[in-house]
Design brief:
Elements: E1 5-9, H1 12-28, H2 33-49, E2 66-74, E3 78-86, H3 93-103, E4 108-113, E5 119-126, H4 128-136
Length: about 140
């Protein structure tokens, strides 16, 4: 199932669109209702944490080239991977504290500083079956 979508984030409307698409993709891959809510809430919360949709500092009215990529991933079950790239945050440590509350909503979050100065965050939410199977192993 190919549901990959890249959403350029220029403002809050784009963040809302990413949240809605994430929820729809979660539904299509079979995540339960509470899992759909968790991953969509985490998507918009993380976008806000990364200051996506905000103007570039020092350039009033000009939004950064931020984007969110939503895609289906599979191991023994399906889940979603949501990749964020933000030019508005240039220090991974600056958002580490805020990520704590988001970590409770998803199964994995990875954060890295990119060579171009942006911050990339990879967020993964597995269906409940996949999480249960990985805990048994």
């Amino acid at each position: 199932m190919n549901l990959t979508r890249t959403i350029p984030i220029m403002n809050q409307v784009d963040i809302h669109a990413a949240r809605m698409y994430t929820r729809e993709a979660a539904r299509l891959v079979g995540l339960e209702l509470n899992e759909q809510a968790q991953v969509s809430m985490a998507t918009s919360s993380l976008a806000d944490c990364l200051k996506m949709g905000a103007p570039v500092p020092g350039t009033p009215g000009q939004a950064a080239a931020n984007q969110i990529v939503i895609k289906v991933i599979e191991n023994s079950h399906q889940g979603l991977q949501v990749d964020f790239e933000s030019m508005n945050i240039t220090n991974c440590d600056a958002i580490e504290f805020q990520l704590r509350r988001i970590r409770n909503l998803v199964d994995d979050i990875q954060i890295e500083q990119m060579p171009n100065g942006s911050v990339r965050v990879i967020m993964i939410k597995w269906g409940r079956q996949a999480v249960a199977n990985s805990r048994q192993n």
